[in-house]
Design goal:
The complex is a heterodimer of chains A (92) and B (332). Chain A is an alpha/beta fold. Helix content of chain A is 26%, strand content 18%. The model of chain A has no long low-confidence stretch (mean pLDDT 89). The relative contact order of chain B is 0.16. In chain B, the strands form three sheets. In chain B, strands 3, 4, 5, 6, 9, 10 and 11 form a seven-stranded mixed beta sheet that branches. A two-stranded antiparallel sheet of chain B has the order 1-2. A two-stranded antiparallel ribbon of chain B has the order 7-8. In chain B, strand 1 (37-41) and strand 2 form a beta hairpin. Classes of the chains: A alpha/beta (92), B alpha+beta (332).
Chain lengths: 92, 332
C-alpha cells in the first residue's frame, strides 16, 4: 500500500550557493579579517595579519559586536565592498 | 517509516507520517488560515505557513489541541531578540525551552508535576520536538551543519513543560513577565539541563536560599559571571519552605542576588590555581553572578522530593538571547 505524505521542508533547504572565486595571489589583494569577538581572537588575528602582509596583502580588520549573533548586514556589506577576500576567525 | 529518515526529515526518532488527513486534523487545532505566515524561520529565514508548521507538528506526534502552543512557540522563537539562529549555531549546550503558563496546560494534559523533565507525557514530549523539527525542516538547521553543538542536550531535541501554578508560592513566570494571570501563555528560554540541587535538611528560607545560591554560583564555572543566564526550577517541597515563611519570588530573588554578589579576588584569572576567570582588573571589586534580569524562577515538580534544579542558560540579553513571553490565544 502506498502512503502519500506532505513535504515538511517546503522544498527550499537544498539550494546550493556557489563559493566565491578563489584569489590567484595574495600580492596586492585586500583581505578582511573578521574577529567574531571571542576572547583572545585578536591575538590569533594579529599573527594572521603579519603573515598576510608578508605575502603582499593589505589587511582590513573588522569585528562582530557579539559572537552569539550573525554579523550585522551593514558590516557584511562593508566587508564585501572593501575586500577581495575575507577570513572569519575565532580563537579561544 | 524509513522514508523520512532517507530524506533527512527526522531528528533520529521515528516520525508520524504527515498524511494529508493528519495534517488537516492538525489544522483543526487553530482558527488561523493554513496559508497564514507564522514567521521567518532561521537559519535560512524561510517563511513558514501554518500548514507547513502543521506538517512538522504531525511528524513530532502532537495532537491538534497542542497546535496553538506550537504556533506561538514558532513565532516567539523566530523573533530577533530570541536569536534562534545563534542558539542553534552555538557550540554550547542550550536549546529552546518552552514553559507554558495558564489553563491551557492542564486543559491539554501537560505535565507540571512529577518527572516534569522526563518521559511519560505526550504534550511535554512533542511540543518542543515540533519546534525543533520546524527549525530543522523549514529553517534548515541540522547538527553538523549550522548546528555546531559540541555535546548538545535534551533541550535541543525538544524540552517543554508547564509551570505548576495551582499551589505555587510564586507569581507565574508569564505573570511576572507582564501578562494577566490565567492568560494562556508561553515563555521561550535558551537553556539546557536540568542540573540538580540537593538540600534535604534546610527548613528555613535563609538556609535553602544559601543552598540554591551555592549551586547557582558554580553554574558553567565558579569563576565566570554575568554572561550566562539561568532558570531556577523550585520543587513543591522546597517551595513550601518559602511559602510557610511568607517569602514571595521577589524576596527570594533579592536574597539570591545578595548571595550571588561575588568577590572579584576569587574570580580573576589564576585565582585558586585555575587559569580560567575574569580579567585581573576586576580584583578588589564585587561582581554579580547573573546580569540584571538573567535569573528566572519557576515552580515545577512532583509532591515528594527535596530536590530542585537549574536550567542553565545561554549568553543572555542583547549580545545573546532574551527570553520571550507571548500569549497563546492569538494562535488558537
Amino acid at each position: 500500500m502506498t502512503t502519500i505524505v506532505l513535504d515538511p521542508t517546503a522544498g527550499s533547504v537544498t539550494d546550493l550557493v556557489p563559493r566565491a572565486k578563489r584569489l590567484q595571489s595574495l600580492d596586492g589583494a585586500v583581505v578582511g579579517l573578521l574577529d567574531i569577538s571571542k576572547a583572545r581572537g585578536n591575538v590569533f588575528l594579529d599573527r594572521v595579519t603579519e603573515r598576510l602582509i608578508e605575502h603582499g596583502a593589505t589587511v582590513n580588520r573588522y569585528r562582530k559586536p557579539t559572537f552569539a549573533k550573525l554579523a550585522p548586514l551593514d558590516l557584511r556589506q562593508e566587508i564585501a565592498s572593501q575586500c577581495d577576500a575575507v577570513i572569519e576567525a575565532l580563537a579561544d | 517509516m524509513e522514508a523520512p529518515f532517507d530524506r533527512g526529515w527526522s531528528d533520529g526518532l521515528p516520525v508520524i507520517p504527515p498524511t494529508e488527513a493528519r495534517v488537516l486534523r492538525m489544522l483543526d487545532g487553530t482558527s488561523r488560515d493554513a496559508q497564514d505566515i507564522v514567521a521567518a524561520v532561521p537559519p535560512n529565514l524561510i517563511e513558514a505557513t501554518v500548514e507547513q508548521v502543521a506538517i512538522n507538528a504531525v511528524m513530532a506526534g502532537c495532537k491538534p489541541e497542542y497546535f496553538p502552543i506550537v504556533l506561538a512557540a514558532v513565532e516567539a522563537a523566530c523573533r530577533d531578540v530570541f536569536n534562534l539562529h545563534g542558539l542553534l549555531a552555538t557550540t554550547y549546550f542550550s536549546g529552546p525551552v518552552i514553559i507554558v503558563n495558564g489553563p491551557i496546560g492542564q486543559r491539554i494534559g501537560m505535565n507540571s508535576d512529577g518527572n516534569v523533565f522526563g518521559q511519560g507525557n505526550r504534550a511535554n514530549m512533542t511540543i518542543g520536538r515540533a519546534l525543533q523539527l520546524v527549525t530543522r525542516n523549514l529553517g534548515g538547521g541540522k547538527p553538523g551543519e549550522v548546528d555546531m553543538a559540541v555535546q548538545g542536550s535534551s533541550s535541543k531535541v525538544g524540552l517543554s513543560f508547564a509551570e505548576r501554578e495551582y499551589d505555587s508560592p510564586f507569581d507565574s513566570l508569564a505573570t511576572e513577565r507582564g501578562l494577566d494571570p490565567d492568560t494562556d501563555a508561553l515563555t521561550l528560554f535558551a537553556g539546557a539541563g536540568p542540573i540538580p540541587i540537593i538540600d534535604q535538611i534546610s527548613r528555613t528560607p535563609e538556609s535553602l536560599a544559601r543552598s540554591f545560591a551555592a549551586v547557582l554560583a558554580n553554574l558553567g564555572h565558579p569563576k565566570l559571571i554575568i554572561g550566562f543566564d539561568a532558570m531556577l526550577v523550585v520543587s513543591p517541597e522546597h517551595g513550601r519552605v518559602f511559602a510557610d515563611a511568607g517569602w514571595d519570588k521577589a524576596r527570594l530573588r533579592a536574597e539570591l542576588n545578595e548571595l550571588l554578589t561575588l568577590d572579584g579576588d576569587n574570580l580573576i584569572r589564576g585565582a585558586g590555581g585555575i587559569a580560567e576567570g575574569v580579567p585581573e582588573g576586576f580584583a578588589g571589586t564585587k561582581l554579580p553572578k547573573f546580569r540584571d534580569g538573567g535569573l528566572q524562577i519557576v515552580h515545577a515538580g512532583g509532591n515528594a522530593g527535596l530536590f530542585s534544579s537549574i536550567l542553565g542558560g545561554w549568553v543572555g540579553g542583547a549580545t545573546g538571547s532574551e527570553p520571550v513571553t507571548v500569549p497563546i490565544g492569538p494562535w488558537a
